[in-house]
Design brief:
The protein contains 1 helix and no strands. The protein is mostly helical. The protein has one domain.
Amino acid sequence: MKRQKEKLETMKREEAEEKERAKEAARERVLLDFEKGQLGLVASSTSVTTSATSDANSNECESFETMDLS
């Protein structure tokens, strides 16, 4: 009877540890997904900013080239 009780306690403890590990793994996945999303937003906003800057510079060059310097 005593051995069964100890075995049951060990099983409960192992189950609780497994649940904690699963919870931690899920937390890590959520964090990584969030970070990937943030990096994606930063990368896309950087490319948008770069494109906008390039467009603005192109427009300035075109305006300068068409300017009558007479």
